[in-house]
Amino acid sequence: MRTGRTASWRRYLPAALWRERLRPWRTRRLLEAHLLVLFVFAAVAATALFLSFGQTQRSAETLASREAPAVQGLAATRLAALRADQEAHALLRLNLVDVAGSGETYRSQLSAADQGLSRIADRTDQDLGTVKGLLATYSNSLTLGASLYRDEPLMRKQKLGEADSLLTRDTVGLAPRLDALQRVQMEHAEATATMGRWQHAGWWLAELALAVVALTLLSALFVLRDRCGRDWNPYLLVAFVLTVLLAVVPLTTTSSTEDALAGAVRNLRQITEVSRQSGAGPADAQQRVTAESEGVRLELADEAWTDKVYRGTLVGGLLVIVLPALGLGLRLDKDYWRRR
Questions:
Q1: What is the rounded distance in angstroms from the CA atom of residue 319 to the CA atom of residue 338?
Q2: Which of 263, 264, 252 is nearest to 305 (CA)?
């Protein structure tokens, strides 16, 4: 009685159920079918991983090398222009214009603003020609008003008023134009750091294909032991381990990278807000922007190790294609194909 119950219970084991489902297939055709499924889905998984993971790497590199420096540079340029205006007016208010070396601060800020725009030029697709022209005109008017017309109050007032207009005039002034550039550049940074619909679809496809590969490898190992009386095939075992690793490690790394990119974007958004809301304290705002920029740089630099994972994923994807084909191909050649 107990033996009958045991036999009945064993019929419902996964191995017994799978053996029953595979019963109509001849062994050679069964192994060939496993080989075909493994090759196709492993190729699909490797391709999807290559494209999706590669896009994540390119996004991180683009944000670190182009988008983040452009956002930081625009914020620094705006603050430098505002601080130059503040320092020039402070000299006049304190009657320090005629003191030797008193204009160094605002001149250095104008120089920093000009250098900032020059550095940004190769990191953005936006047209900076108008802004560069405005900055040059503003710098000239501010310098003339603060330094040249020392004995001509009316001309000094006119030049300083001209500089103020060039800096703050609605829509067409230097500060509003930099604001507009910052908004567009911030949108570019956010788009770069965000995983798109197709990239999400690529990860889903890769994970599903890897799941099929893993299950097919287990089935192939079962068939080899059940029908062919073979021990565990080392090629298929290694391929199974690699499949599990490919399903976990790249996805975990991508999640970590996406978190880092999201954090960097939040810091860039903070930098943009600080530069716009500097009010009467552009010097303090400059210090905050510098600190936040260093935080962004360090956060993106911490993700440099993912490049090694990417290269490992490429090698692992190729091995997952080659190893099952090698393992089943050798077995078929030894046991079945030669008998045709």
A1: 26
A2: 252
Burial 271-284 (b: 16+ CB within 10 A, else e): bbebbbebeeebee
> pLDDT tens, 2-38?
444 444 444 544 555 545 555 555 667 787 888 899 9
Instruction: Please report where in the chains the tokens 């489902």 appear, as a residue.
Output: 21
Taking alpha carbons only, the member of 93, 86, 143, 139 closest to residue 117 is 139
Q: What are phi and psi of 152, to 5 degrees?
A: -130, 85
Query: How many C-beta neighbours within 10 Å does residue 137 have?
Result: 14
Q: Cα–Cα distance between 123 and 320 in angstroms, integer? A: 39
User: Which of 199, 194, 195, 305 is CA-nearest to residue 249?
Assistant: 305
Whole-model pTM above 0.85? no
144-174 pLDDT, tens digit each: 777 666 666 677 778 778 888 888 888 888 8
Spatial separation of the C-alpha atoms in residues 216 and 38, rounded to whole Å: 7
- 3-class DSSP state of 116: helix
pLDDT for 4 equals 46
Q: How far is it between the farthest Cα atoms of the chain?
A: 119
- The predicted pLDDT at position 18 comes to 47
H/E stretch holding 154: helix 153-168
The counts of H helices and E strands in the chain are: 12, 0
CA dist list (Å): 274 to 74, 113, 219: 12, 17, 59
Which residue type, as a one-letter code, is found at position 48? A
pLDDT digits over 95-144, tens only? 655 554 456 777 888 888 888 888 888 888 888 888 888 889 988 888 77
The reported pLDDT for the residue numbered 340 is: 46
Residue 256: other Cβ atoms inside 10 A: 15
Identify the residue whose tokens are 């976990």. 248
Cα 58 off chain centre by: 6
Characterise 95 by phi-psi region: left (phi > 0), alpha (psi -120 to 50), beta (else). left
